[in-house]
Write a structure and sequence with these properties.
Order of helices and strands: HHHHHHHHHH
Pfam families: Cyclin
CATH class of the largest domain: Mainly Alpha
Oligomer: single chain
CATH architecture of the largest domain: Orthogonal Bundle
Helix content: 55-70%
InterPro entries: Cyclin-like_sf, Cyclin_PHO80-like
GO molecular function, one term: protein kinase binding
CATH topology of the largest domain: Cyclin A, domain 1
Organism: Anaeramoeba flamelloides
Largest sheet: none
Protein name: Cyclin
Number of domains: 2
Shape: globular
Number of helices: 10
Length: 226
């Protein structure tokens, strides 16, 4: 059984790292300046939504994608937007006692209510109308926390290296030109470092396990776009 204690470590994670996970696994191939993409990031950054809701959204999203063998790379930007919005709606309804009505989501993000309702029913059917969070979800949370903590450590280590490089740069500025240019190049390299730690094998196994579950849902094994 999932309890609030299971989410304590999740709430301590910076939201920016959850966004980085989303970018790395879902939205990296799109233009990051696109209005729809920015609207997605606005949704995921909303302080009203706790981290556990964002993480549960990712869980439902990945579960549906794996169960129905949907290639993320094949999704159009609008489909990704409605997928995330729908999973956020399902997550809030399951985890929050006082969740928003669909009308409120639609008003907030200027989307048609009929479309959102259709996506919600489609995703519920794909999940066999079962939003329960089981032991597999708990493993997913634990592995995600481990991954995000690794990401946090990587970013913090990069910041330390940048500070150290800047200190060396300031020293070398008064020294020989060659060393000055070397330190300057090193700092610039650190500033554009964007490599994320690879997903752990355990997390990959969990998402792969989705495909072994029962697929006897009402909707055929195709992804419907509304």
């Amino acid at each position: 059984m999932i309890t609030e204690e299971n989410f304590e470590s999740v709430e301590q994670i910076e939201r920016s790292f959850l966004i980085e996970y989303f970018v790395s696994n879902f939205s990296h191939r799109f233009d990051q300046n696109d209005e729809t993409i920015n609207q997605l990031y606005t949704m995921l950054r909303d302080p009203i939504l706790e981290n556990k809701i964002i993480l549960t959204c990712f869980y439902y999203l990945e579960k549906i994608y794996v169960l129905y063998e949907i290639e993320i790379a094949s999704l159009q930007i609008d489909s990704l937007f409605y997928s995330v919005l729908t999973c956020l709606i399902l997550s809030t309804k399951y985890l929050m006692d006082d969740s928003w009505y669909n009308q409120e989501w639609c008003k907030l993000y200027s989307v048609p209510l009929e479309t959102v309702n259709e996506w919600e029913m489609d995703f519920l059917a794909k999940l066999d109308f079962n939003l329960n969070l089981d032991d597999q979800y708990l493993r997913y949370v634990q592995e995600m926390v481990k991954y995000l903590n690794d990401l946090t450590f990587t970013n913090e280590l990069t910041e330390v290296k940048k500070i150290e490089a800047c200190e060396r740069f300031q020293e070398s500025e008064s020294l020989v030109p060659q060393q000055y240019e070397t330190e300057k190049t090193h700092i610039n390299t650190l500033q554009i470092q964007t490599d994320l730690p690879p997903l752990s094998n355990d997390l990959l196994e969990i998402t792969t396990d989705f495909s072994q579950q029962d697929k006897n849902c009402m909707i055929p094994n195709t992804f419907q776009f509304f």
